[in-house]
Amino acid sequence: MNNKYYITAAIPYVNGKPHIGHALEFVQTDVISRYHRLMRKEVIYLSGADENGLKMVQAAERENLPVQEFCDRNAQKFIEIFKKLNTTLDFFQRASSKIHKKGSQELWKLCEKNGDIYKKKYKGLYCVGCETFYTKDELVDGKCPEHLKVPEVVEEENYFFKLSKYEKPLLKLFEENKIKIVPEHRKNEVISFIKQGLEDLSISRSKERAKGWGVAVPNDEKQIIYIWFDALNVYQTGVGFGTDEKKYQKWWPADTHVIGKGILRFHAIYWPAILLSAHLELPKTILVHGYVNSGGQKMSKSLGNVIDPFIEIEKYGVDAIRYYLLSQILPTEDGDYNGEQFKKAYNGDLANGLGNVVARIAKLCEKSGLKFESNKTEFKDTLKEHKFHKVLEIFQFDSALKIIWEKIKKLDQRINNEKPWEVIKDPKQQDKIKTILSFYVQEIREIACLLEPFLPDTSQKIKRQFSGKEIQSEGPLFPRLI
Ligand SMILES: [Zn+2]
Q1: Which Gene3D superfamilies is this protein grouped with (predicted)?
Q2: Residue of 113, 119, 298, 371 marked catalytic
Q3: Which of 53, 104, 306, 476: CA 20 to 30 A from 381?
């Protein structure tokens, strides 16, 4: 049995602070990572920082900081948000690290050895924001579709990667599901992009234009490796590629790359092509999430509607934020973050639904004065919830949560029907009340286990309260928002 699981969150470009969209991805990745840990697998959850490229140099210049210092400061903010979100991130690999640079030069040499790298003069339309050349067809009204800016015309001699050579092998890969893309419509997008024909990819910049920042091309000090060639390789250098062969052999290939829809092409076309060229193994699955809008609009600095996850966590607590991101935003579609929906989900599902049933049962147990069998229900005991495991295996976080809340609702209704508060009063019915309450307690213990990958703190709190022989009531898990 394959007992290891290697999962990555996309490595953010650290030219700014993390926003709520980053939080969505880091939390989604964390749920999968926690799930496999609970299933007793050995897991690595890796992310890192994409730090090379001209955009970083320009951003540092605007703040009057040396580029390395600028990267250090911003990378730190991302490391902090992984912690604040209570993720199980194991490793944060930075693209400006020595280890990474060495590994990226190794990757270059492997592709070169296979005859897939050549030099030629090139003129193209370049968006600095995307660090990408666009063809005229790909522009919208002559502008980059991501940044809505007119790209620069750039002419220089670069190294090229023979992407065109991999058109057929890539098509075969996706048609045979050798790399699984979730959701299916993203796979179709990739296939139709490949079918339009793939052009060779420029994979270096002149040192001058890159302002000397980045990974040097092996044996050519005048050129710097294009950031998308080196950035994707963080997934490999983070587990030892080029520096720790034993570690690399153990962990590569990645089981799942979690990414946003905007960088699908890099992960589903360039990355597998580079790996095929280097004769290295391919990642197994790519999970693609959508964007998080704010109050119905795209988040942007100029609209002033960028949601800062640090502030939200401070205000509502980390599990409330995790719950919103996982239940209110469909895992592979665009979603919205807004106060009204937040309050509704928080009060309805957390304060009333979960919080209320936990408080009700604790109070009944306390009032009965009974002692219960102490018990440590574990996650594997929830395997009988087949449907829950099935939807989680295919990353349907919202559906998995619905299954848990269905259980909560049923339990609440059962309490209403059985009216245990009446039974408690009758001294002749001590056996009956013990049976009734023991059932509730067992149900709550199971609910706590099911919640563990999603709301780890809340799960621990409930477990602590309900695992012993004597059960006491405590303050509300989620105080109502007014
Ligand atoms: Zn752009």
Answers
A1: 2.170.220.10, HUPs (3.40.50.620), Isoleucyl-tRNA Synthetase, Domain 1 (1.10.730.10)
A2: 298
A3: 476
In a domain, 239, yes or no: yes
Measured in Å, residue 78 CA sits from the centre of ligand 1 at 22
Ligand 1 center from residue 153 Cα (angstroms): 13
Domain assignment present for 235: yes
Residue 305 lies in a domain: no
**Both 252 and 372 in a single domain?**
no
Residue 316 in domain? no
Distance 144 CA to ligand 1 centre (A): 5
- Confirm whether 298 is a catalytic residue: yes
**143-195 per-position pLDDT tens digit:** 998 889 999 998 889 999 999 999 999 999 999 999 999 999 999 999 999 99
The reply to whether 36 belongs to the active site is no
**Long-range Cβ pairs for the range 324-330 (8 Å, 24+):** 325/20, 325/23, 325/24, 325/27, 325/28, 325/292, 326/27, 326/28, 326/31, 326/397, 326/398, 326/401, 326/454, 327/397, 327/398, 327/401, 327/402, 328/398, 329/24, 329/290, 329/292, 329/398, 330/290, 330/398
For helices 20-38 and 309-316, angle between their N-to-C axes, nearest 10 degrees = 60
**Which DSSP symbol is given to 426?**
-
The number of distinct structural domains making up the chain is 2
Which residue of the set 98, 121, 301, 384 is catalytic?
A: 301
pLDDT in tens, 268-314: 999 999 999 999 999 999 999 999 999 999 998 888 999 999 999 99
Say whether 130 is catalytic: yes
The range of the structural domain enclosing residue 265 comes to 4-289
CA of 32 to the centre of ligand 1 (A): 31
154, burial (CB in 10 Å: exposed 0-12, middle 13-18, buried 19+): middle
Q: Which CATH number is 349's domain given?
A: 1.10.730.10
Q: Is the pLDDT of residue 132 over 80?
A: no
Same domain, 276 and 399: no
Strand partners, 289: 260
| pLDDT attached to residue 133 | 79
Distance of CA 261 from the midpoint of ligand 1 (Å): 14
What is the pLDDT at residue 436?
Answer: 97
Put the strands of the sheet holding 180-182 in their side by side order.
91-94, 42-49, 4-9, 256-260, 285-289, 180-182
CA of 94 to the centre of ligand 1 (A): 23
